[in-house]
Design a protein that fits this description.
Blueprint: H1 29-32, H2 36-48, H3 59-68, H4 73-81, H5 88-93, H6 98-101, H7 116-125, H8 129-137, H9 147-154, H10 164-173, E1 178-181, E2 186-189, H11 192-203, H12 208-216
Antiparallel strand pairs: 1-2
Helix pairs in contact: 2-4, 8-10, 9-12
Length: 217
C-alpha cells in the first residue's frame, strides 16, 4: 500500500528497500551475492541471458547499480532487463538518466509498473496541490534536512510556515520522504531516485531561482 489507512486495528509495517552493500566498502563476490538487491539483479539478469553470472569483473558495476537505485526492486528489475542491449557497465554509466533508461517493463505489468517514471508519476499525481508544491521545493536540498530548514526555505507563495509540518508528514506517510531519528532531532531524506524526480519537477517551475536563493541564504 502507498500509505496507511488510519483505521481502527490497523498495524502499519514499513517495507524497506532491498538490502545493498555500503558504497564505501564493496565486499568480495561471495559476500556480495548474499545481498537481497544483488540477488534480485542476478536472478532477473539470468532470465535475459541464461549464461549471465556474477563475477569479479562485473561485480563492482552491479553493486553500484543496486546502490544508486536505492535497492528499489522495480528499478533493479528494469535495469536488469536492459541487458538485452547493454552491458552491466553501460547500464551503470547511464544511471544519471535513469528515467529514460528504465523503461522496459513487461507487457503484462500494470501501466504504472512498466517504467520507473510512471511508477513515481502515479504516486506524485495523487498528492494534493500543496503537497506537490512542497515536494518540488524540497528538491533544493541535496542531502538530508531538518524541519526548521524545510520551513525556512519552502514556506511562502501559498504555503504558510505552520503548514509545512503537516504537509511534510503527509509526504512521509506516502513514502516519498523518509524520517530518521537522530540523537537530537528527526532528519528527513529521500531516496536518490525520488530526489532526482523531484529535481526534474523543480527546475521547470518559475520559483526555482527564488527557492535556491532562499536556500543559499
Amino acid at each position: 500500500s502507498r500509505e496507511a489507512l488510519d483505521v481502527m486495528g490497523e498495524f502499519a509495517w514499513r517495507v524497506p528497500s532491498l538490502a545493498f552493500p555500503d558504497v564505501n566498502h564493496i565486499p568480495d563476490v561471495e559476500r556480495l551475492s548474499q545481498y537481497e538487491a544483488i540477488k534480485l539483479f542476478v536472478e532477473r539478469a539470468e532470465l535475459v541471458d541464461p549464461k549471465f553470472k556474477l563475477n569479479e569483473n562485473n561485480a563492482p558495476s552491479i553493486a553500484q547499480i543496486c546502490i544508486r537505485l536505492d535497492g528499489i526492486p522495480l528499478a533493479i528489475e528494469l535495469a536488469a532487463a536492459r541487458l538485452k542491449t547493454l552491458s552491466v557497465e553501460q547500464i551503470h554509466a547511464r544511471l544519471d538518466d535513469r528515467f529514460n533508461l528504465l523503461t522496459n517493463g513487461g507487457r503484462v505489468a500494470l501501466p504504472r509498473h512498466q517504467t520507473l517514471r510512471a511508477t513515481i508519476d502515479w504516486s506524485y499525481n495523487l498528492l494534493s496541490e500543496d503537497e506537490k508544491t512542497l515536494f518540488r521545493r524540497l528538491a533544493v536540498f541535496t542531502g538530508g534536512f531538518g524541519l526548521e530548514g524545510a520551513e525556512s526555505v519552502c514556506m511562502g507563495d501559498g504555503i504558510r510556515k505552520e503548514d509545512v509540518l503537516d504537509l511534510l508528514t503527509g509526504l512521509v506517510h506516502k513514502s516519498l520522504i523518509n524520517a530518521e531519528e537522530s540523537s537530537e532531532e528527526v532528519r528527513y531524506r529521500r531516496l536518490e531516485t525520488i530526489r532526482q524526480y523531484g529535481k526534474e519537477k523543480f527546475i521547470v517551475t518559475d520559483e526555482a531561482e527564488k527557492i535556491r536563493e532562499r536556500h543559499l541564504h
